[in-house]
């Protein structure tokens, strides 16, 4: 069995945003007995990294990034039933949300997709999420990073409420908090006690990778 | 000697690339916090812009029903029924909706669809039926009424049709992307990738339908026709802008220009990635352009790049959040950046309500911005504030 052929087909389908291709490649890989974890780690994840690179260089836009993520998701739906539970090392978990009162999720989704491509496990709570729910998710999933997004200036203040809620528990010292969104500035991040105010999606993702890099070595 | 212009004359002069006596600044009627500060600022030169529709949309063979649980009065399901099927959406409104400006809440929040009307491929034919059976009937009364009331205090913009509770007057692809299919989770991109033919077909149907609306707007009593397109380069990437937005703006402009109207388009997002393409559109006024730190294109650069266009910039709410000292510094730097200050007007805000303090602070600077601006004049303004 030439595993590389199957891995290349998976990768190609994602990079080329090919829904039909991923269905075929994922099923053929499973039928041929390729280890499911390997199809993810050596086929799909590297493909998303290529898509992320293309986004960073301006060859791909948000639309391609979203569609590539969806193509991968459909491939995962085929592969997931073949995965056997194992005790291998778990990815770092990031809880991400658009804060209460705000429904804008483009930036949040963009960052979530890019973080997945960097090997993080994403707990996406969606939009209009109250602080209490974010705190519960951090606790439940043992997250190491909390990503908060807001587009509106009057919902921005709710990011500070989340940080206060984390501080009110023992969780604040365990997690890094990164905030983002059009109105967010590094000064604002500092003023509410966040660890970082992302200038854009890529810069924010690089910061998250930097935070966990020592534990990945 | 240049005589003192009225707010209307000032804003129209700038919009027509003519010399105004001073930098036009204005508040959007929708954001106008009628009262103490507003009156003082208007007495000191702040104008008003007011958008009103020039036509009524009638949909034939379509019924729309709204229903909701009164224990959650701000969440409403709206169902459209047609001979070819039904679609429905779930809309969440903020307190104040229907009691102030249309469906906006007290804090100026627009309704948000938490479930979209276009969910599956089968839904496309229903919306296509709706738009193909839409008739546009000219009704200039709202514009004439606002013009009479405003007089020389500002300008009435023609916003095509009124956003009752069906459509927002976005251009065809934008209305599909953000009103009907939705952008949450990148839904509009996924639909474009999976159901490209259906999206294209519906886009063509909207584009054809809107032609009648452009003809009505061209004969409107308003001088400026406003397309509230909410352009953001993150959502509307250059490929989409070139394929679906530029041809529509070309079509609008051809009709409007032949009747002496100016075309203004609301571009309130990060448009840096689109700046070269925007330069090649026939848009007369780039409205609501927000400079950094809110968005990504400095006003000076935009003015330099778009020499045939006028910019009505929106003052960034982010700056207001940082306090009056920052507002002052930002505005003085802005004035230095845009010297001599032509082809520019400043909206106090296009997206958010403004505090009285900030409104007065900004007015105290802009009321003294006599044109043509020079670095020395800006220095004098700075000294006058101390």
Produce a short descriptive summary.
Chain A has about 220 residues and is of the alpha/beta class. In chain A, about 60% of the residues lie in helices and about 10% in strands. In chain B, strands 1-2-9-10-11-12-13-14 form an 8-stranded parallel barrel, surrounded by 4 helices.
Fold blueprint:
The complex is a heterodimer of chains A (217) and B (386).
Chain A: H1 3-15, H2 19-31, H3 36-56, H4 62-79, E1 93-98, H5 106-117, E2 121-124, H6 131-141, E3 145-149, H7 153-167, E4 176-180, H8 186-192, E5 196-197, H9 201-216
Parallel strand pairs in A: 1-2, 1-3, 3-4, 4-5
Helix pairs in contact in A: 1-2, 1-3, 1-4, 2-4, 3-4, 4-5, 5-9, 6-7
Chain B: H1 7-15, E1 25-28, H2 36-43, E2 47-52, E3 55-59, E4 63-67, E5 75-82, E6 85-92, E7 112-115, H3 124-132, E8 134-138, H4 141-150, E9 154-158, H5 172-181, H6 187-194, H7 196-218, E10 224-227, H8 238-257, E11 262-266, H9 275-279, E12 285-289, H10 299-305, E13 310-314, H11 317-321, H12 324-338, E14 344-347, H13 356-366, H14 375-385
Parallel strand pairs in B: 1-2, 1-14, 2-9, 9-10, 10-11, 11-12, 12-13, 13-14
Antiparallel strand pairs in B: 3-8, 4-5, 5-6, 6-7
Helix pairs in contact in B: 2-13, 3-7, 5-6, 6-7, 7-8, 12-13
